[in-house]
Amino acid sequence: xxxxxxxxxxxxxxxxxxxxxxxxxxxxxxxxxxxxxxxxxxxxxxxxxxxxxxxxxxxxxxxxxxxxxxxxxxxxxxxxxxxxxxxxxxxxxxxxxxxxxxxxxxxxxxxxxxxxxxxxxxxxxxxxxxxxxxxxxxxxxxxxx
Amino acid sequence: xxxxxxxxxxxxxxxxxxxxxxxxxxxxxxxxxxxxxxxxxxxxxxxxxxxxxxxxxxxxxxxxxxxxxxxxxxxxxxxxxxxxxxxxxxxxxxxxxxxxxxxxxxxxxxxxxxxxxxxxxxxxxxxxxxxxxxxxxxxxxxxxxxxxxxxxxxxxxxxxxxxxxxxxxxxxxxxxxxxxxxxxxxxxxxxxxxxxxxxxxxxxxxxxxxxxxxxxxxxxxxxxxxxxxxxxxxxxxxxxx
Lengths: 145, 241
Hints:
The complex is a heterodimer of chains A (145) and B (241). Chain A has four helices and no strands. Chain A has helices at residues 10-14, 18-48, 56-78, 86-135. Chain A is mainly α and 145 residues long. Chain A is elongated. Chain A has two domains: 1-83; 85-145, no CATH class. Chain B is mostly helical and 241 residues long. Chain B has one domain (28-240): Four Helix Bundle (Hemerythrin (Met), subunit A) (Up-down Bundle). Chain B has helices spanning 2-7, 26-55, 63-66, 80-104, 108-138, 172-205, 207-211, 215-240, and strands at 144-150, 153-159. Chain B has a two-stranded antiparallel ribbon with strand order 1-2. In chain B, helix 2 (26-55) packs parallel to helix 8 (215-240) and helix 5 (108-138) runs antiparallel to helix 6. The chains are: A mainly alpha (145), B mainly alpha (241).
């Protein structure tokens, strides 16, 4: 099948010789060892989190940061997005950059915290109501976790 | 015949199907766009999870206490088994990319070998996930007393393990998210194995050797790496944090 679109055909772009293949395989295994190392570090820090009394904020930044490193290696190296043209990279990654910003501000800094604060206020109200009910010979706190 | 020659001339713009944009073939572009939309589905699920988890931080079960089983071992090693599952999936991603590389050298037998190893890795992962679910559903022999709804009445009752209604380890919504998100991911792994198997048969039949290139292997490879990519995030948000 001919495309005639000014780009070389898939065969011309993708096929490579034995020499180049050796180089590609070397890169693949290098990426594998990096990913394995990162995962082991994550697990080790996960084990020690309580013993070292690491703060929740530090763990969040640390784990999510390393996750994005791993994700970048998968997408750029294994999925070959690093070899695609610049426009395609932006088409695929752009939406997720916006999404990440949205999540940071919405879940972690904004609405998530608000929901938690509201919950504390409502829990207090429920507890007060339960005390009130208990005074009127009622079993309080039902259905509440 | 002269009219034929005119239609195969180089086109100046994208339209009409003759030109594949962005320097990639149509097949690869479609796979990428599908993966972008699929990634948004997973983002939606994980966003809801993150929101609820943020809201109920103080009641959230510690994953290290929930997932500490290891096959053929009586004691408890927190998170070791998920670590192994992650290793299996990363490994199968590596064998997939090696299959793609062998395809670029037109080596049919090598492609087949790496594809087969990828399929085996995928099956091992799905099996591990089933085992993980089993342990979570069965729970501990001691169990825990939880306030649950029985026939429309809230009662304190001794329960073991978790399902969509109650959860021995803490908040029921933890179980709901766990089953739904790892289930959705597990289904992706399963369908990935099926797709890989079909392409593996085609490789053995020599379909791509005849075609002169193994682009199909690269396309299913994109899907397979995506499954690995999602797991990297599920692993962090469910097990590490």
